[in-house]
Design a protein that fits this description.
This protein is mostly helical. The chain is built from 25 helices and no strands. The longest helix is centred in the first third of the chain and has 27 residues. The chain starts with 7 loop residues before the first helix and ends in a 6-residue tail after the last helix.
Length: 508
């Protein structure tokens, strides 16, 4: 029987379809009411919390205290949040602070005091200096200076960019230098050709010269990156005893760090250029056309202004302070004094500093270092170190260069998934206790960890410098993999050679 020309079967299908659509609409409305999208966006936060609850309810493993289990749980949860970033990273810092009070039972005053060490003060001061340096806008002058020294050949310009980026990054910090040098690279690219397709490989070589130049140089001095300051703080916290003169060698000052690390940076510079030129064969071997246009633009700017010379003088005084008096008053104090100098001279306004400094990063590193100290105090670091050695023993890598290589590979893997500072903050206590358990030099293993944290060549988010050059639009994510593995192998070989041949000579 037909109803108005509609068969019973068709009617049934229609009713069913209406029912399905109604059900879908109801589900969507319920989803909107419950904000399911929010839960999906924050899923890794809830996963991390669930992992934490599970770990805290496990039976405490043999050789590990209950407090040690709590600290390890906090570290695992923090690492998941570092990698996945479902919440702003400063939120992770606040969780670490709250966890120390609520889970470990520490007094809030005690936790608060642990957040502001000289290492954290140094990081804060360096970020303030970075804002002041960027404010001077010397990018085109730097580009012109490079080509005046190197000439117009592409290979020499690439080396010059890496060298200048590296030297600056070793003192200022790679994110600052990358931001300052990016216009230099883009200027040379756009002055060569307006068509990105025609300068695809040239752009890759020039931009990677910036990011990788910054990365290999960030190891050179304590001011090259937060990771370095964090490791210096750990050495002091773990091994220094004012009553024992033999422990004074763990007070690594500015000059001592440079003696260990700066030669590695200098050795890697030409290798960076070689790897880039072999991987990406640039379309133009000479950039004379771009250099002519660049010269014209610099001439329009005129000579350096008095404010530029004052900025250069202040920065020179900061470097001198780090080298001469930082051992007495702390590197953090010198950095803050430098920031004060820029503010008093009127070269930067407080509004610029306040908006330009990522204060959340300062809080993050403070909390991470504080958690690292608790890993030492509760014995968690020793427990992890012992189990790591147990894992390496069947592989014959429980000591010597085998252990160094294992630590380097572990750090390289971790630093490509989170910030290098966070990598050192998490791994530092474990590695230093590992050195004690294995009878290795804490200085050597500490340097290996700090230096290896700079090998974040494989991903866009590995370092701020990589993220900054990727933001130019000239690079693909696959470009980082294409050249990054070669950079990792080169850097690890150079570092292990230094650890085996050079560091013992200077007292490691």
């Amino acid at each position: 029987m037909n109803i108005n020309g509609i068969t019973p079967k068709a009617l049934t299908q229609h009713i069913g379809a209406v029912g399905v659509r109604t059900g879908i609409h109801r589900f969507v409305n319920i989803g909107k009411q419950l904000n399911l999208y929010y839960f999906w966006e924050k899923r890794w936060f809830f996963i991390a919390m669930a992992v934490g609850v599970v770990l805290l309810n496990l039976e405490t493993p043999g050789g590990l205290s209950r407090e040690g289990l709590i600290v390890l749980t906090m570290s695992v949860v923090a690492t998941i949040l570092f990698v996945t970033e479902p919440v702003p990273l400063p939120t992770v810092a606040l969780l670490i602070i709250a966890g120390q009070v609520l889970l470990l039972g520490l007094e809030s005053t005690q936790v608060a005091k642990s957040l502001m060490t000289d290492s954290v003060l140094f990081i804060m001061g360096s970020l303030m200096l970075a804002v002041a340096v960027v404010k001077q806008k010397l990018d085109k002058r730097i580009a012109w200076l490079i080509v005046r020294i190197t000439g117009t050949k592409t290979s020499r310009i690439c080396f010059g960019i890496s060298a200048v980026s590296g030297v600056l990054a070793s003192f200022v910090g790679e994110h600052t230098v990358a931001a300052m040098m990016l216009p230099v690279g883009i200027t040379l690219i756009t002055l060569t050709s307006d068509d990105p397709a025609k300068v695809r490989n040239l752009a890759a070589v020039l931009l990677f010269s910036i990011s990788y130049g910054c990365s290999v140089a960030g190891i050179g001095t304590p001011s090259g990156g937060a990771r370095n300051a964090i490791m210096i703080g750990y050495w002091k916290e773990f091994f220094y005893d004012p009553a024992n003169p033999e422990t004074y060698r763990y007070l690594i000052d500015y000059v001592t760090w440079m003696a260990y690390a700066y030669p590695m940076f200098l050795l890697q510079l030409p290798l960076v250029t070689l790897i880039l030129l072999v991987t990406f064969r640039p379309e133009y071997r000479d950039l004379s056309r771009a250099v002519v246009k660049l010269r014209a633009e610099v001439e329009v700017q005129g000579p350096l202004k008095p404010s530029d010379w004052i900025a250069i003088l202040i920065f020179a005084l900061i470097l001198a302070g780090w080298i001469t008096i930082s051992a007495d008053i702390g590197m953090g104090t010198v950095a803050v004094l430098g920031a004060i100098g820029f503010l008093v001279a009127g070269l930067v306004q407080w509004e610029d500093v306040n908006s330009g400094v990522n204060w959340g990063v300062v809080l993050l590193y403070g909390a991470a270092i504080s958690l690292g100290v608790q890993m030492k105090n509760t014995g968690a670091a020793v427990w992890v170190a012992q189990n790591f050695l147990f894992f390496l023993e069947p592989l014959g890598m429980e000591e010597g260069i085998g252990l160094w290589g294992a630590v380097s590979l572990l750090t390289t893997a971790v630093t490509n998934t989170m910030s290098n500072g966070a990598a050192v903050a998490v791994l530092g206590p474990i590695v230093l206790k590992l050195a004690t358990v294995a009878g290795e030099s804490p200085i050597i293993l500490g340097f290996i960890t700090a230096v290896s944290s700079a090998f974040a060549y494989l991903t866009v988010v590995g370092t701020p410098a990589c993220t900054i050059v990727y933001a130019s639009g000239y690079l693909k994510t696959t470009d980082f993999l294409k050249v990054g593995w070669k950079m990792c192998i080169m850097s690890i070989i150079v570092m292990l050679a230094a650890a085996y041949l050079y560091w013992p000579i200077i007292g490691a």
